[in-house]
Amino acid sequence: MTTSYNYHMTHFVMSAPDIRHLPVDTGIEVAFAGRSNAGKSSALNTLTNQKSLARTSKTPGRTQLINLFEVEDGCRLVDLPGYGYAEVPEELKRKWQKALGEYLQKRDSLKGLVVLMDIRHPMKDLDQQMVSWAVDVSLPVLILLTKADKLASGARKAQLKEVREFVQDVGGDVEVEMFSSLKKLGIDKLRARLDHWFSQPQIVPDEDSAQ
Ligand SMILES: Nc1nc2c(ncn2[C@@H]2O[C@H](COP(=O)(O)OP(=O)(O)OP(=O)(O)O)[C@@H](O)[C@H]2O)c(=O)[nH]1
Ligand SMILES: [Mg+2]
Prior knowledge:
Layout: E1 11-16, E2 28-34, H1 40-48, E3 66-72, E4 75-79, H2 90-106, E5 110-118, H3 125-136, E6 141-146, H4 153-170, E7 174-178, H5 187-198
Parallel strand pairs: 2-4, 2-5, 5-6, 6-7
Antiparallel strand pairs: 1-3, 3-4
The chain binds guanosine-5'-triphosphate and magnesium ion.
The site of guanosine-5'-triphosphate has 23 residues, from helix 1.
InterPro entries: G_ENGB_dom, GTP-bd, GTP-bd_ribosome_bio_YsxC, P-loop_NTPase
GO biological process, one term: division septum assembly
Cofactor: Mg(2+)
Protein backbone atom coordinates (compact mmCIF):
# COMPACT_ATOMS: atom_id res chain seq x y z
CA MET A 1 0.00 0.00 0.00
CA THR A 2 1.23 3.50 -0.79
CA THR A 3 1.19 6.14 1.93
CA SER A 4 0.94 9.85 1.08
CA TYR A 5 3.63 11.91 2.70
CA ASN A 6 3.44 15.59 3.51
CA TYR A 7 6.50 16.96 1.74
CA HIS A 8 5.75 20.48 2.96
CA MET A 9 6.83 19.31 6.43
CA THR A 10 10.36 18.51 5.19
CA HIS A 11 13.13 20.05 7.25
CA PHE A 12 16.88 20.36 6.93
CA VAL A 13 18.94 17.84 8.88
CA MET A 14 22.56 18.43 7.96
CA SER A 15 25.18 19.04 5.31
CA ALA A 16 27.93 16.45 5.21
CA PRO A 17 31.19 16.61 3.26
CA ASP A 18 31.19 12.82 2.87
CA ILE A 19 29.27 9.72 3.95
CA ARG A 20 31.22 9.26 7.18
CA HIS A 21 29.50 12.36 8.55
CA LEU A 22 25.96 11.20 7.73
CA PRO A 23 23.54 9.90 10.39
CA VAL A 24 22.97 6.15 10.79
CA ASP A 25 22.23 4.34 7.56
CA THR A 26 18.67 3.16 8.31
CA GLY A 27 15.29 4.12 6.90
CA ILE A 28 14.82 5.24 3.29
CA GLU A 29 16.67 7.91 1.35
CA VAL A 30 15.88 9.27 -2.09
CA ALA A 31 18.64 11.30 -3.71
CA PHE A 32 18.42 14.08 -6.28
CA ALA A 33 21.32 13.87 -8.71
CA GLY A 34 22.19 15.53 -11.98
CA ARG A 35 24.52 17.90 -13.79
CA SER A 36 25.33 21.20 -12.16
CA ASN A 37 22.61 23.75 -12.75
CA ALA A 38 20.04 21.11 -13.80
CA GLY A 39 17.63 22.38 -11.14
CA LYS A 40 18.01 19.83 -8.31
CA SER A 41 17.83 22.29 -5.44
CA SER A 42 14.98 24.19 -7.10
CA ALA A 43 13.01 20.96 -7.53
CA LEU A 44 13.44 20.17 -3.83
CA ASN A 45 12.21 23.63 -2.89
CA THR A 46 9.22 23.32 -5.21
CA LEU A 47 8.32 19.87 -3.89
CA THR A 48 8.52 21.02 -0.28
CA ASN A 49 6.92 24.40 -1.03
CA GLN A 50 9.77 26.16 0.74
CA LYS A 51 11.63 29.02 -0.90
CA SER A 52 15.09 28.29 0.37
CA LEU A 53 15.20 24.85 1.94
CA ALA A 54 17.89 23.83 -0.56
CA ARG A 55 20.24 26.55 -1.77
CA THR A 56 19.89 27.44 -5.44
CA SER A 57 22.12 29.57 -7.60
CA LYS A 58 22.75 30.81 -11.11
CA THR A 59 26.36 29.75 -10.53
CA PRO A 60 26.78 26.07 -11.31
CA GLY A 61 28.36 24.08 -8.52
CA ARG A 62 26.44 25.75 -5.72
CA THR A 63 25.64 22.53 -3.86
CA GLN A 64 29.00 21.30 -2.63
CA LEU A 65 27.96 18.92 0.11
CA ILE A 66 25.59 16.05 0.68
CA ASN A 67 22.53 17.90 1.99
CA LEU A 68 20.09 15.85 3.98
CA PHE A 69 16.42 16.67 4.61
CA GLU A 70 13.86 14.73 6.59
CA VAL A 71 10.27 14.34 5.38
CA GLU A 72 9.38 12.41 8.49
CA ASP A 73 11.11 9.93 10.76
CA GLY A 74 13.03 7.46 8.57
CA CYS A 75 12.21 9.18 5.24
CA ARG A 76 14.90 11.46 3.89
CA LEU A 77 15.61 13.45 0.73
CA VAL A 78 19.17 14.16 -0.35
CA ASP A 79 20.41 17.05 -2.46
CA LEU A 80 23.66 15.90 -4.07
CA PRO A 81 26.45 17.97 -5.58
CA GLY A 82 26.04 18.36 -9.33
CA TYR A 83 28.39 16.64 -11.72
CA GLY A 84 29.97 17.78 -14.94
CA TYR A 85 30.86 21.32 -13.99
CA ALA A 86 34.13 22.16 -15.69
CA GLU A 87 35.11 25.41 -14.00
CA VAL A 88 35.69 24.05 -10.53
CA PRO A 89 39.29 23.67 -9.33
CA GLU A 90 40.45 20.13 -10.06
CA GLU A 91 41.12 19.20 -6.44
CA LEU A 92 37.74 20.37 -5.18
CA LYS A 93 36.05 18.54 -8.05
CA ARG A 94 37.83 15.30 -7.18
CA LYS A 95 36.72 15.66 -3.57
CA TRP A 96 33.03 16.10 -4.43
CA GLN A 97 33.02 13.40 -7.03
CA LYS A 98 34.54 11.03 -4.51
CA ALA A 99 31.87 11.95 -1.93
CA LEU A 100 29.15 11.54 -4.56
CA GLY A 101 30.44 8.17 -5.76
CA GLU A 102 30.79 6.85 -2.22
CA TYR A 103 27.33 8.01 -1.29
CA LEU A 104 25.77 6.29 -4.30
CA GLN A 105 27.68 3.06 -3.87
CA LYS A 106 27.75 2.62 -0.12
CA ARG A 107 24.59 4.14 1.31
CA ASP A 108 22.27 1.21 2.05
CA SER A 109 19.24 3.40 2.79
CA LEU A 110 19.36 4.83 -0.75
CA LYS A 111 16.23 3.34 -2.36
CA GLY A 112 15.48 5.67 -5.24
CA LEU A 113 17.26 8.13 -7.48
CA VAL A 114 15.78 11.24 -9.08
CA VAL A 115 18.02 12.27 -11.97
CA LEU A 116 17.36 15.80 -13.17
CA MET A 117 18.31 16.95 -16.65
CA ASP A 118 17.67 20.22 -18.44
CA ILE A 119 14.99 19.36 -21.02
CA ARG A 120 16.94 21.29 -23.65
CA HIS A 121 19.97 19.02 -23.41
CA PRO A 122 19.19 15.74 -21.64
CA MET A 123 21.10 12.44 -21.49
CA LYS A 124 24.63 13.79 -21.70
CA ASP A 125 27.40 11.23 -21.15
CA LEU A 126 27.46 11.59 -17.35
CA ASP A 127 23.65 11.37 -17.19
CA GLN A 128 23.75 8.17 -19.21
CA GLN A 129 26.42 6.76 -16.92
CA MET A 130 24.38 7.66 -13.84
CA VAL A 131 21.24 5.99 -15.20
CA SER A 132 23.09 2.87 -16.42
CA TRP A 133 24.80 2.51 -13.06
CA ALA A 134 21.46 2.73 -11.21
CA VAL A 135 19.94 0.11 -13.54
CA ASP A 136 22.96 -2.17 -12.95
CA VAL A 137 22.52 -2.03 -9.18
CA SER A 138 18.68 -2.32 -9.46
CA LEU A 139 18.07 1.14 -8.07
CA PRO A 140 14.83 2.63 -9.45
CA VAL A 141 15.14 5.97 -11.26
CA LEU A 142 12.85 8.89 -11.99
CA ILE A 143 14.25 11.17 -14.67
CA LEU A 144 12.88 14.69 -14.47
CA LEU A 145 13.31 16.85 -17.58
CA THR A 146 13.62 20.21 -15.87
CA LYS A 147 13.01 23.78 -17.00
CA ALA A 148 10.20 22.55 -19.27
CA ASP A 149 8.90 26.14 -19.22
CA LYS A 150 11.82 27.04 -21.48
CA LEU A 151 10.35 25.07 -24.40
CA ALA A 152 7.06 25.33 -26.29
CA SER A 153 4.63 22.48 -25.78
CA GLY A 154 5.48 20.65 -29.04
CA ALA A 155 9.21 20.74 -28.39
CA ARG A 156 8.69 19.53 -24.83
CA LYS A 157 6.72 16.52 -25.96
CA ALA A 158 9.31 15.68 -28.59
CA GLN A 159 12.08 15.72 -25.97
CA LEU A 160 10.03 13.59 -23.57
CA LYS A 161 9.35 11.04 -26.29
CA GLU A 162 13.00 10.87 -27.29
CA VAL A 163 14.24 10.35 -23.72
CA ARG A 164 11.54 7.74 -23.06
CA GLU A 165 12.65 5.85 -26.15
CA PHE A 166 16.23 6.06 -25.03
CA VAL A 167 15.55 4.62 -21.56
CA GLN A 168 13.47 1.79 -23.01
CA ASP A 169 16.69 0.41 -24.42
CA VAL A 170 18.45 0.75 -21.07
CA GLY A 171 15.92 -1.49 -19.28
CA GLY A 172 15.47 -1.37 -15.50
CA ASP A 173 12.94 0.62 -13.48
CA VAL A 174 13.32 4.04 -15.11
CA GLU A 175 10.53 6.57 -15.59
CA VAL A 176 10.73 9.90 -17.38
CA GLU A 177 8.56 12.97 -16.68
CA MET A 178 8.60 16.66 -17.51
CA PHE A 179 9.19 19.13 -14.73
CA SER A 180 9.27 22.86 -14.15
CA SER A 181 9.91 24.48 -10.81
CA LEU A 182 8.91 27.81 -12.30
CA LYS A 183 5.51 26.61 -13.56
CA LYS A 184 5.05 23.93 -10.89
CA LEU A 185 4.77 21.25 -13.55
CA GLY A 186 5.35 17.56 -12.80
CA ILE A 187 5.16 17.87 -9.02
CA ASP A 188 2.31 15.34 -8.75
CA LYS A 189 4.34 12.76 -10.66
CA LEU A 190 7.37 13.40 -8.47
CA ARG A 191 5.28 13.16 -5.31
CA ALA A 192 3.64 9.90 -6.44
CA ARG A 193 7.02 8.32 -7.16
CA LEU A 194 8.47 9.41 -3.81
CA ASP A 195 5.36 8.14 -1.98
CA HIS A 196 5.87 4.80 -3.69
CA TRP A 197 9.55 4.54 -2.75
CA PHE A 198 9.02 5.69 0.82
CA SER A 199 6.17 3.16 1.24
CA GLN A 200 8.30 0.14 0.34
CA PRO A 201 8.47 -2.28 3.26
CA GLN A 202 11.92 -2.52 4.77
CA ILE A 203 13.55 -5.80 5.56
CA VAL A 204 14.65 -5.51 9.16
CA PRO A 205 17.37 -8.02 10.06
CA ASP A 206 16.01 -10.75 12.31
CA GLU A 207 17.84 -10.65 15.64
CA ASP A 208 17.77 -14.45 15.97
CA SER A 209 19.49 -14.96 12.64
CA ALA A 210 22.14 -12.33 13.37
CA GLN A 211 24.06 -14.59 15.76
N1 LIG B 1 13.18 28.67 -16.07
C1 LIG B 1 13.48 27.82 -15.09
N2 LIG B 1 14.63 27.98 -14.40
C2 LIG B 1 14.91 27.07 -13.43
C3 LIG B 1 14.04 25.98 -13.12
N3 LIG B 1 14.61 25.25 -12.14
C4 LIG B 1 15.77 25.85 -11.84
N4 LIG B 1 15.97 26.95 -12.60
C5 LIG B 1 17.13 27.87 -12.54
O1 LIG B 1 18.32 27.14 -12.85
C6 LIG B 1 19.41 27.58 -12.02
C7 LIG B 1 20.02 26.40 -11.28
O2 LIG B 1 19.07 25.88 -10.37
P1 LIG B 1 19.52 25.02 -9.09
O3 LIG B 1 18.26 24.47 -8.53
O4 LIG B 1 20.40 25.82 -8.21
O5 LIG B 1 20.37 23.87 -9.80
P2 LIG B 1 21.20 22.66 -9.13
O6 LIG B 1 21.00 21.49 -10.01
O7 LIG B 1 20.83 22.51 -7.70
O8 LIG B 1 22.69 23.20 -9.29
P3 LIG B 1 24.02 22.74 -8.47
O9 LIG B 1 23.69 22.79 -7.02
O10 LIG B 1 25.01 23.75 -8.90
O11 LIG B 1 24.38 21.39 -8.94
C8 LIG B 1 18.84 28.67 -11.12
O12 LIG B 1 19.11 29.94 -11.69
C9 LIG B 1 17.34 28.39 -11.12
O13 LIG B 1 16.56 29.53 -10.88
C10 LIG B 1 12.81 25.87 -13.87
O14 LIG B 1 11.97 24.99 -13.69
N5 LIG B 1 12.59 26.81 -14.83
MG1 LIG C 1 21.98 22.56 -5.99
